[in-house]
Amino acid sequence: MRHAIPDRSIVTVMISLCIAACGPAPEPQEEVQGPTRADSVSMALQAFDATVFDTIVWESDAARAERGGLVFRISCAKCHGPNGRGDGDFVMQGDTLRPPSFLTPDWQFADAPMPLRRYIFSGNVAGMPYWGLVGLKYRDIDAVAHFIESPLRGIPGAAP
């Protein structure tokens, strides 16, 4: 039985590769940083369009509140607690988040419907998700903001 002899060009390429692999280590390159949380919040603030809320139509306030309650339970309650008191005890990077209660009279968005929607859309660097970039549509943001404003804040202590 005869063994095939490899082509000289293949042998030459393989030897060249082995020599190159044994050469000096490449110069370290500058580490490339991915986007930070602050970058994402900034992108969300730039993407926010308040005029979209003018185009959202609901069949009734009850339908809007029902959808908002569902969005709240799925997306918000894990941090803000089931009743919006800020007692969800969600842990992020080893720390338990302590968001403010929606039910206090001095809550920052108590009388600010559009800033609340912008905040839900864009989040913050402390842990509030930038929901407008990661899954909630404007319609869901409108619904959950409405749910927080009323019935949640309208009936202190009411379960969603």
Topology:
Layout: H1 8-21, H2 37-47, H3 61-80, E1 91-92, E2 95-96, H4 113-122, H5 138-152
Antiparallel strand pairs: 1-2
Helix pairs in contact: 3-5, 4-5
Descriptive account of the structure:
Helix content is 44%, strand content 2%. The protein has 160 residues and is mainly alpha-helical. It has one domain: Cytochrome c-like domain (Cytochrome Bc1 Complex, Chain D, domain 2). Strands 1-2 form a two-stranded antiparallel sheet. A hairpin with a 2-residue loop joins strand 1 (91-92) and strand 2. Mean pLDDT is 83; it is low at 155-160.
Question: What does this entry show, briefly?
Answer:
This protein has 5 helices and 2 strands, in the order H-H-H-E-E-H-H. By secondary structure, it is mainly α.
List the keywords.
single chain, 160 residues, mainly alpha, Cytochrome Bc1 Complex, Chain D, domain 2, two-stranded antiparallel ribbon, 5 helices
Structural class: mainly alpha
Unreliably modeled segments? 155-160
Order of helices and strands: HHHEEHH
The overall strand count is 2
Basic shape: extended
- Percent of residues in helices comes to 40-55%
Mean pLDDT: 83
Query: Rg from C-alpha positions?
Result: 27 Å
Terminal-residue CA separation: 82 Å
CATH fold label: Cytochrome Bc1 Complex, Chain D, domain 2
Please identify, by name, the CATH architecture. Orthogonal Bundle
Q: Provide the spatial order of strands within the biggest beta sheet.
A: 1-2
Going by CATH, what is the homologous superfamily? Cytochrome c-like domain
